[in-house]
Amino acid sequence: VQLQESGGGSVQAGGSLRLSCAAAPYATRNSYVMGWFRQVPGKEREWVATIDSTGDIEYRDNVKGRFTISLDNAQSNLILQMSRLIPEDTAMYYCAAECRWFFAFSCDKFGRGTQVTVSS
Length: 120
Description:
The chain is mostly beta strands. 0% of the residues lie in helices and 54% in strands. The protein contains no helices and 11 strands. The strands form 2 sheets. Strands 2, 4, 5, 6, 9, 10 and 11 form a 7-stranded mixed β-sheet that branches. The protein is globular and about 40 Å long. The protein starts with a strand and ends with a strand.
């Protein structure tokens, strides 16, 4: 099942954006790990935030306090609420499923991405 992101766009520094990803059927399983990644051209894709079926949530250091990952009540949409955006947050953002922590955070399924551009 293809993951599909939405909600990207252009915003000025200090602004907010809300990304959404159709998460079914992955988030309706008894056990799941999902997350958001981002990638800038010429750099490796990096994880941004993760959430699992136990309720455990992780953020990379440079988004802590500014980004919030969540699932809606129906477990059908994975949300990334981004606030106090800075130009360094500019990237293509990807929803990911079938993930795991094993030395590093990796996932088997990715969406096609949604572009986030933050201007100064």
